[in-house]
Write a structure and sequence with these properties.
The protein starts with 9 loop residues before the first helix and ends with a helix. 47% of the residues lie in helices and 12% in strands. By secondary structure, the chain is α/β, with parallel strands linked by helices. Helix 12 packs across helix 17. The protein contains 19 helices and 11 strands. The strands form 2 sheets. The chain has a 6-stranded mixed beta sheet with strand order 1-2-11-10-8-9, sandwiched between helices. It folds into 3 domains: 218 residues, Glucose-6-phosphate isomerase like protein, domain 1 (Rossmann fold, 3-Layer(aba) Sandwich); 181 residues, Rossmann fold, CATH 3.40.50; 35 residues. Strand 5, helix 8 and strand 6 form a beta-alpha-beta unit.
């Protein structure tokens, strides 16, 4: 039976295939992924899971340092950033850079965490991958015992930066500049302002995480304040590099190393029997939703409050990686690619967008995450979160027939769940990497490049041209915006 949007009825599938409740689950040491509420017949799920030779070959190419980013003629070796021995993935020279930066990060983050420096507030200037991953980790794993707090500076918000600096003591403030190219306009604009505010000894409390050491030195930083990482590090995978310094200072170096250990475990699962990796389950389920059922969206909702920022992180990871319309051979993609990712904290969203999910005219696949750990003294809080996760999963899938039409809910909304026993450094590291690998596997299934982002680069290029026009006058690079520029100039 087909329902709205030509989706199979998940309720009918469960009645016909009760065994799917256990057969469409993939478990890892820390996570339980359940795809049974994806409207895909069990035999098709099992057949695709059994025929993964194409995916195995692609994983071997990724971990074998082959060129998987052909438009930039590069491998994607971010796994080396978390590897116990980076030389198993990268060359010895690059492995040395990774090891040195990792040791710098551990030493410096440890001193900041323990209060062995004058710094009590760390300003982290970075945007995109230089912000989203570290901020997610710091939010998820913040133990509340660090000697430093972290303020995350992303967009150019003049009001916020002024208010922030007004309440801080420059002598007790440090700055981390996270930028792969060390040319990101938003990041360097803020870094210059903060450097001047810090005073003559700004260099003593300023560090850079970058692949462009020369530009960091030109900025005025001492060589031992530059934590370098290799140029093949993609921005949305840079969490594992020295870009994670501020997060490591917040959670402490021991927890940071546990995070890396969990990440390595997810790598090992994929390179072992990938059918046992939640990354594979995620990829196959999302492929079925996007290509099989025409779903254009994916909601990511966390009922583990620690992971409330996961959806924001995945917006970049998924959409920047998979938002492509050209195949690897240059031809046009024959089907849909990236879904639009949205989401946030579960019980918050239940008071806003969930109404449209339950009774709107469009079905939106959902991924619901939660933790089953009951914290002593707050048992009711955790049970409440889990009750809402289970209740929403049931309502979204099953719906409800009511006597009054305005109370009717169609249901048949695809729902995936990811559950962990506890949110720990290892489980968070594992989770992030499962998503990284799921995105790569989807790019293989869809024959696209997951590692370039030319659309992002084009927007930046045009912004530079408009910046010049706004500062110096002249004609608009886009004639359709000339009237808008004229109005801006008259308003100014």
């Amino acid at each position: 039976m087909l329902q709205k949007n030509n989706n199979r009825s998940t309720s009918d599938l469960f009645r016909a295939e009760p065994e799917r409740a256990s057969a469409m689950i993939i478990e890892s040491p820390d996570w339980r992924f359940d795809a049974s509420r994806v409207p895909l017949p069990l035999d098709q799920w099992q057949a695709r899971l059994a025929s993964t030779d194409d995916l195995r070959q692609a994983v071997a190419a990724l971990f074998g340092a082959e060129i998987v980013n052909p438009s930039e003629n590069q491998p994607a070796l971010h796994m080396a950033l978390r590897a116990e021995d980076p030389s198993t993935l990268a060359g010895e020279e690059q492995a040395r850079v990774v090891r040195d930066a990792r040791q710098q990060l551990l030493d410096l983050s440890g001193r900041l965490y323990r209060g062995e420096t004058p710094v009590t507030t760390l300003l982290h200037a970075g945007i995109g991958g230089s912000d989203l991953g570290p901020r997610l980790v710091a939010e998820a794993l913040d133990p509340g015992d660090s000697a430093v707090s972290v303020e995350w500076l992303t967009t150019l918000d003049a009001r916020r930066i002024r208010r922030l600096l007004d309440r801080l003591d420059p002598a007790r403030t440090g700055l981390v500049i996270a930028s792969k190219s060390f040319s990101t306009v938003e990041t360097l604009t803020q870094a210059r302002l903060i450097r001047d505010w810090l005073g003559e000894d700004a260099g003593d409390r300023t560090w850079a995480a970058t692949a462009n050491v020369d530009r960091a030195l030109e900025f005025g930083l001492a060589a031992d304040h530059v934590l370098a990482f290799p140029g093949w590090t993609g921005g949305r995978y840079s969490l594992w590099s020295s870009v994670g310094l501020s997060a490591a200072a917040r959670i402490g170096p021991e927890r940071w190393q546990a995070l890396l250990a969990g990440a390595r475990r997810a790598d090992e699962m994929l390179t072992g029997d990938l059918r046992q990796s939640p990354a594979t389950g995620l990829a196959l389920a999302i492929d079925a939703l996007v290509r099989g059922h025409g779903s254009a969206t994916l909601g990511v909702v966390s009922y583990a409050p620690e992971l409330r920022l996961l959806a924001e992180f995945l917006q970049q990871l998924v959409m920047e990686s998979l938002g492509k319309s050209v195949r690897l051979d240059g031809g046009e993609v024959g089907g849909s690619t990236s879904p639009l990712v949205f989401g946030g904290a579960g019980t918050d969203l239940q008071h806003s967008l969930f109404q449209a999910l339950h009774q709107g005219t469009t079905r939106h696949p959902m991924l619901l995450l939660g933790s089953v750990e009951v914290r002593p003294g707050l048992e009711d809080w955790q049970r409440e979160q889990l009750a809402h996760l289970l209740g929403q999963a049931s309502a979204l899938v099953n719906g409800r027939q009511a006597e009054r039409p305005e109370q009717d809910m169609p249901g048949n909304n695809p729902v995936m769940t990811l559950l962990t026993r506890r949110v720990t450094p290892a489980s968070v590291g594992e989770l992030i990497v499962h998503f990284e690998h799921a995105v790569y596997l989807l790019s293989v299934l869809w024959d696209i490049n997951a590692f370039d982002q030319w659309g992002v680069e084009e927007g930046k290029r045009l912004a530079g041209q408009f910046r010049d026009v706004l500062a110096e006058g002249g004609s608009s690079p886009d004639s359709t915006l000339q009237a808008t520029l004229d109005w801006i100039n008259s308003a100014g």
